[in-house]
Amino acid sequence: MTFSDFNFNEQLMEGVSSMGFVTPTPIQAEAIPIILKGQDIIACAQTGTGKTGAYLLPVLEHISSTNKHQISTLILAPTRELAQQIDQQVEGLAYFTGISSIAVFGGGDGIAYEQQRRGIQNDVNIIVATPGRLIAHLNSGIVKLNHLSHLILDEADRMLDMGFYDDIMKIVSYLPKKRQTLMFSATMPGRIRTLAKTILHNPHQVNIAMSQPAVGIDQQIYRVHDAQKTPLLLTLLKTGSYKSVIIFASRKEIVKSLAKELKSARMKVSAFHSDLEQKEREEILLEFKNKELPVIVGTDALSRGIDVEGIDLVINYDVPGDPEDYVHRVGRTARAETTGTAITFVNHRDERRLKSIEQLIEKPIRLMELPDELKGIEGPRPEHQTDRRPPRKKQWGRRNNSKGKAQQ
């Protein structure tokens, strides 16, 4: 099967060819015909499987045959980075069609808001937005969605995790009831199904390898003490031939500290976290995408906010608390049918989390042997990992009449 089998118009096919798309991925092969028929869909597919193209292509085909001087499509995304990436995909695929789009997200200054306002008023066809900033524009009255034909929720599970349910429902209240709604999610928990029943009409359901990392990922774990983590990280980066690396940590304080330590070891690295200005975040991602920056350290916000091919190593410095986040993290590598390596550091407190991950992916992760020079390292955790809570003091109460049991 090729994209020509979908009978897209000539201008759209020219965009498909220019983007290098030849053979549809499984999610594209299943979802595109359903969407072309105008039916609602709830699709579950892991990251890196081509789900953006799965909904963009049939929607672009529809817009090409209708009035291009109105907002016909709204795409909601959980993060500004994902919104920008979707907007870039629209620009590439729709380059020869005359279809226009704009990315609407927060985090900028008043100038950015004004630029978005003007863009929305300039007869764009597609708005790609984060929920919070879109509501600000809706409240101002400048966004008119009465001609909307398509509502798309990308990474719906992540939006609910981030607390956007009320925002989504408020946005839906502005939309025509007669519309096509497409929901894409990497996981399918109960709250996603509840949302789908509320805003979708008789949806078709498509499931593609739910909650499974891509087959091209070599998954590994190292069992470590906290004091061994950073030395092991440095060893892996210095001895491996990795050209594009993402390191995930649990908190931005750890992210900042790790980046500082890696820079001290003369590595070119940037920390990606919420304290950065939007322009700084964009510059880091652009450098990483252009292979000018070999290493990024970030939190889980980065796991769904970056779509870059050629990432050959992902390191989980901390085991994620949610096994689904593990799938998203390691899914940054081995994209577009390539291969990659995902390494996770597991300390004694993480054993339960590791077990949950292995239950989710339905297989054990390969245990690697710690390098000999690191086996003797023990001691207190690095400062950025220190648990600063004071030890709990025993509160002794009265003894009972029989055994003098301590009451705490």
List keywords for this structure.
408 residues, alpha/beta, Rossmann fold, 2 domains, 7-stranded parallel β-sheet, globular, disordered C terminus
Report the order of strands and helices. Answer: HHEHEHEHEHEHHEHEEHEHEHEEHEHE
- Helical proportion, percent range: 25-40%
Helix segment tally: 14
- If classified by CATH, what would the architecture of the largest domain be? 3-Layer(aba) Sandwich
- CATH topology heading of the largest domain: Rossmann fold
Largest sheet: 7 strands, parallel
Whole-number count of domains:
2
The fraction of residues assigned to DSSP E strands is 15-25%
What is the CATH C-level name of the largest domain? Alpha Beta
